[in-house]
């Protein structure tokens, strides 16, 4: 399990690498718990000024592993499961340490929300970014509706959330969902260069700068993310959610009833 997420230090920069390439870095319970632990340690370190999140393989993160959809490792309620996941995203946003994400390939569902919770996003041209939860009978639940709206506006977010369709790198850049797009060969170097540059700055200035900028959207994102919690807790109990999962398993079109 320790190899599913790698953690290393370069001066004042902490680098976390998602390392489950054979599953496009989809997160099962073990990988998610490990990532949250290593991220928490990075954000608590006095000697770390900034964090870079990157990934091995062809994709940044394809979200929750489909093999464990609906599974609750702690035998907890849907409410507590979602709320615990939300705290990880909110901690990223509200931490005083700037976070850079290097994105490529699939940046899907929870992987997209992980990317959105970073402060700066560098993508390569292979990027496919999506919030496809509606195709599974649910909706984004760790801030996707809120963070994406803050970046690209309500209409474009509605397109992403209500269709579940992906956007490519050029569209993500045009809309403002990512900040830079480079070739695949340049991605790691460009993201590392930006993260190093930030990590070299005075930590108190970094903390205050991020805090001031976050005041524009931060409180609204926290409130809206909690609204996602209530919606998702309800949707997990609907007949349409069960039908969506059954249809996916049976490889057919779902027959929704609005119940």
From TrEMBL:
It comes from the Bacteria. One of its GO terms (biological process) is fatty acid beta-oxidation. CDD domains: crotonase-like. Coiled coil: none annotated. Pfam families: ECH_1 (PF00378). This is Response regulator receiver protein. InterPro entries: ClpP/crotonase-like_dom_sf, Enoyl-CoA_hydra/iso.
């Amino acid at each position: 399990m320790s190899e599913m997420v790698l953690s290393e230090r370069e001066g004042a920069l902490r680098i976390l690498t998602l390392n489950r390439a054979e599953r496009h870095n989809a997160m099962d319970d073990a990988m998610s718990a490990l990532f949250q632990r290593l991220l928490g340690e990075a954000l608590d370190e006095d000697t770390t000024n900034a964090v870079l999140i990157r990934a091995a393989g062809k994709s940044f993160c394809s979200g929750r592993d489909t093999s464990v959809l609906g599974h609750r490792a702690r035998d907890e309620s849907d409410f507590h499961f979602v709320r615990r996941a939300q705290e990880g995203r909110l901690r990223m946003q509200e931490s005083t340490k700037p976070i850079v994400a290097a994105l490529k390939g699939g940046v899907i569902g929870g992987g997209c929300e992980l990317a959105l919770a970073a402060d700066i996003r560098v993508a390569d041209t292979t990027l496919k970014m999506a919030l496809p939860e509606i195709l599974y009978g649910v909706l984004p639940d760790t801030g996707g509706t809120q963070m994406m709206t803050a970046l690209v506006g309500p209409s474009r977010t509605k397109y992403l959330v209500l269709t579940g369709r992906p956007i490519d790198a050029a569209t993500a850049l045009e809309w403002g969902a990512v900040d830079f797009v480079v070739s695949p060969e340049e991605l790691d170097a460009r993201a590392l260069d930006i993260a190093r540059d930030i990590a070299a700055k005075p930590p108190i200035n970094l903390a205050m700068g991020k805090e001031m900028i976050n005041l524009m959207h931060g409180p609204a994102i926290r409130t809206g993310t909690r609204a996602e919690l209530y919606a998702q807790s309800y949707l997990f109990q609907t007949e349409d959610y069960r039908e969506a999962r059954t249809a996916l398993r049976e490889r057919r079109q779902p027959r929704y009833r609005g119940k």
